[in-house]
Structure formats: structure tokens, C-alpha cells
């Protein structure tokens, strides 16, 4: 006889199942290894403030994982506001990592990839509602060309009002599939175009599809960027590679806001046991 799960029984996301197992395995370590925990806490202190970088794409009502509904995004921003988080810019983060500035308590960098039009129409007003900064990594050849992406006029307006506009390359091609000549073109040309349109230097980029390697990171540095962002899960501190900064991706799920809170709460636990950074 085969037994099937009742339809009313809620599904448990795979990552929650893994997290539960990890937590159970971790409990003995918490109790039995005070020396190890002390050493870890010292290392954490030496690495400075941990910064959470959230990674969004679309803020709209499409029923896909990359689209967070505006109503949910508003609730997530309210959660951050109510719990004392302070938004920062890429410059704030960079200056802190370089030891040239201190960050506010509970710093968070809110980022969006690609430059979708809904970032302007939906996310931007919500960020303004809470007095929050944000950062949009734009695909420079898409702006003003495709109707579902922001225009350069929109980019300039947001850039003047607390939303940093940075590079997501020219054409959003997977960088590990390109030659060095193509890589340099994607990096340099997108930087130059954004600087021409915005009227100031553009110092940061995010890897399209998250693909990169150390050679590509070196080319990013040579192209004149100060830092680069990945989709590797985790918080950022002084132990992070400045050209491979971690982020926390936020998706639409069956319980979007509950999963949002769980994700940001569990990052420190993962890092405490070395399960995030390598």
C-alpha cells in the first residue's frame, strides 16, 4: 500500500528542510565548543561590521520567482524600517571596507539587477516612502530601447534622489562564455555609457547571471571598477573579496514575506559555522 501526503499538508521548501537538518547538527557544537565559538567571534570582530545586501530583480505582479509583488515589497521595506535597518549606498559600503568610514547600525544595501521599468514605477516610490536608498545595476544597451526597461531620463531622476545607477554590462551576456576582448568591451563600454548619461563616475558592477571567476574579476578591476557584486549568498564584511561581494537574493515564493524574514535572520547562523564564505 502506498501512502500519499494529504492535500492540506503544506509543502516545505527544500532549503528549509536542509536548514532544519543543519540547525539540528549545529546544536551540539554550540554547547560543546566554547573555545571554537570564542575564536569565531574574535574573527568576526576583526572583520568588522557585517552588511546585508539584498538582491531583487522585478517588483511587479507577474507570477514568476524573480517578480516580488509591490505589496510584498512594501511590507519587506516596512519590516526593515521597523527593525532599525539603515540603507546605504555602494560608496558607503566601499569606504567602510577600505577603513575610511563607519557604517550606521544595521546597514543594508538594497540592490536591483537589470533595470526593469517597474523598478522606477513600483520600487522607487516605496523606497522614497521609507526614506531608503537603493542601487540599480542596469544593462546599458537596454535602457531607452526596450519598453520594459527604464529610460536614461528615469535613471537620472532616480540617481539624483538616492538611487545609485551602476553597471550590469552592455548586453547581459554570461561573462564566462566571452573572450577577453568581449569581456573588456562589456565592462568598459557599459561604464562609459552610464557615465556619459549620468554625468559622473560609475564605480560598481554586478555580474550578469552571477557567473564570474578570478580572471574576470581582475578584468573588472582593470576596467576601473572599485567593486563587483555576485549572487553568492551571504553577508559582506572585510573578509569578502571586493570583486566578488555576497548578496541575499529575494524571490517570490508561496510565502514571500515569511521567507524574506527567515532568509535575513539565518544568514548570521550560516556564517557563524563557515557555511557561507569559503
Protein architecture, described:
- By secondary structure, the protein is of the alpha/beta class.
- It has one domain (49-257): TIM Barrel.
- Helix content is 43%, strand content 14%.
- It is built from nine helices and eight strands.
- It has helices at residues 14-32, 34-46, 70-82, 90-97, 117-129, 152-159, 180-198, 214-222, 256-272, and strands spanning 52-56, 86-87, 107-114, 134-138, 163-167, 204-206, 227-233, 245-249.
- Strands 1, 2, 3, 4, 5, 6, 7 and 8 form an eight-stranded parallel sheet that branches.
- Strand 3, helix 5 (117-129) and strand 4 form a beta-alpha-beta unit.
- Helix 3 packs parallel to helix 5.
- The longest helix has 19 residues, at 14-32.
- Residues 1-12, 21-45 and 270-278 have low confidence and may be disordered.
Shape: globular
Helix content: 40-55%
CATH architecture: Alpha-Beta Barrel
Number of domains: 1
Radius of gyration using CA atoms only: 20 Å
- SSE pattern, N- to C-terminal: HHEHEHEHEHEHEHEEH
Taking pLDDT < 50 over at least 5 consecutive residues as the criterion, the unreliable ranges are: 1-12, 21-45, 270-278
Question: For the terminal residues, how far apart are their CA atoms?
Answer: 46 Å
Characterize this entry briefly.
By secondary structure, the chain is of the alpha/beta class. The protein has helices at 14-32, 34-46, 70-82, 90-97, 117-129, 152-159, 180-198, 214-222, 256-272; strands at 52-56, 86-87, 107-114, 134-138, 163-167, 204-206, 227-233, 245-249. The protein has a single domain (49-257), classed as Alpha-Beta Barrel (TIM Barrel).
Amino acid at each position: 500500500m502506498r501512502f500519499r501526503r494529504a492535500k492540506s499538508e503544506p509543502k516545505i521548501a527544500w532549503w528549509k528542510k536542509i536548514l532544519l537538518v543543519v540547525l539540528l547538527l549545529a546544536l551540539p557544537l554550540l554547547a560543546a565548543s566554547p573555545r571554537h565559538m570564542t575564536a569565531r567571534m574574535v574573527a568576526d570582530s576583526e572583520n568588522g561590521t557585517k552588511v546585508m545586501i539584498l538582491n531583487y530583480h522585478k517588483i511587479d505582479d507577474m507570477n514568476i520567482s524573480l517578480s516580488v509583488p509591490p505589496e510584498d515589497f512594501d511590507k519587506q521595506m516596512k519590516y526593515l524600517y521597523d527593525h532599525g535597518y539603515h540603507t546605504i549606498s555602494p560608496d558607503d559600503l566601499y569606504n567602510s571596507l577600505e577603513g575610511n568610514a563607519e557604517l550606521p547600525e544595521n546597514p543594508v544595501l538594497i540592490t536591483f539587477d537589470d533595470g526593469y521599468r517597474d523598478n522606477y514605477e513600483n520600487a522607487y516610490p516605496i523606497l522614497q516612502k521609507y526614506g531608503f536608498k537603493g542601487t540599480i545595476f542596469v544593462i546599458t544597451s537596454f535602457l531607452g530601447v526596450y519598453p520594459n526597461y527604464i529610460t536614461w531620463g528615469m535613471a537620472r531622476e532616480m540617481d539624483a534622489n538616492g538611487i545609485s545607477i551602476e553597471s550590469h554590462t552592455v548586453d547581459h551576456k554570461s561573462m564566462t562564455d566571452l573572450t577577453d576582448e568581449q569581456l573588456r568591451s562589456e565592462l568598459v563600454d557599459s561604464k562609459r555609457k552610464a557615465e556619459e548619461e549620468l554625468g559622473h563616475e560609475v564605480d560598481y558592477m554586478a555580474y550578469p547571471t552571477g557567473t564570474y571567476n578570478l580572471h574576470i574579476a581582475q578584468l573588472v578591476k582593470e576596467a576601473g571598477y572599485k567593486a563587483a557584486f555576485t549572487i553568492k549568498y551571504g553577508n559582506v564584511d572585510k573578509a569578502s573579496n571586493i570583486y566578488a561581494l555576497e548578496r541575499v537574493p529575494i524571490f517570490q515564493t508561496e510565502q514571500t514575506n515569511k521567507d524574506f524574514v527567515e532568509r535575513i535572520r539565518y544568514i548570521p547562523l550560516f556564517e557563524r559555522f563557515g557555511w557561507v564564505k569559503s
